[in-house]
Design the sequence.
């Protein structure tokens, strides 16, 4: 009798241990709380940061520098336009068929600087906040800025071409106007190139997978 009880006990004890271990394994929640916390912890991410939201824009850090260049070129164009206007008003009699001051008469350097500064401000805010709401504003302002810069390049190039084709004697106010237009053309070209680079980076970040 004692042998039968010992034999049945030896069979029941391993079976009971196996059953309790099997039930204990699947009674705990899945995934465990520790694993969930590990996935959300900053140390588990490859860059040591929390996962970013879907509204995050992955644009280069150099975009802020390009935005500062846009603002600087816009301010320089503003001062060049003001100097051109002052020269044109004070020396109006010296300008005629020899030199047609298209940049001075149209005041391109004054009103174009407003769009250049706004485009640079939006570019800097996009890099700072990295939000998609600023992406739309930055694309719109940079497209508008590049179009205005292209129009200015055509106008100033026409002005310089007409002045270069003239064979009459050139006096100092005309030389000063030509120099101002050349500087205006230079910084407008810089603005056009920077706007194109910013738009390329934004579109690349927008359609990033």
Sequence:
């Amino acid at each position: 009798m004692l042998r039968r009880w010992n034999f049945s006990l030896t069979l029941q004890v391993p079976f009971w241990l196996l059953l309790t271990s099997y039930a204990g394994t699947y009674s705990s929640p899945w995934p465990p709380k520790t694993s969930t916390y590990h996935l959300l912890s900053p140390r588990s991410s490859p860059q040591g940061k929390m996962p970013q939201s879907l509204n995050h824009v992955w644009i280069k850090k150099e975009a802020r520098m390009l935005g500062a260049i846009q603002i600087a070129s816009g301010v320089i164009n503003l001062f060049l336009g003001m100097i051109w206007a002052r020269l044109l008003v004070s020396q109006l009699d010296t300008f005629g068929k020899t030199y047609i001051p298209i940049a001075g008469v149209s005041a391109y350097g004054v009103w174009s600087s407003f769009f250049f500064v706004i485009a640079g401000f939006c570019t800097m805010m996009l890099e700072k906040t990295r939000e998609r709401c600023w992406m739309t504003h930055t694309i719109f302002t940079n497209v508008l800025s590049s179009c205005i810069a292209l129009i200015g390049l055509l106008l100033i190039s026409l002005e310089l071409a007409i002045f270069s084709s003239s064979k009459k004697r050139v006096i100092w106010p005309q030389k000063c106007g030509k120099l101002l237009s050349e500087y205006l053309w230079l910084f407008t070209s810089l603005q056009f190139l920077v706007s194109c680079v910013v738009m390329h980076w934004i579109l690349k970040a927008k359609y990033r997978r």
Remarks:
- Residues 22 and 28 are 11 Å apart (CA to CA).
- Confidence is low (pLDDT under 50) at residues 2-7, 13-54.
- The chain has two domains: 2-44, 63-206.
- DSSP finds seven helices and no strands in the chain.
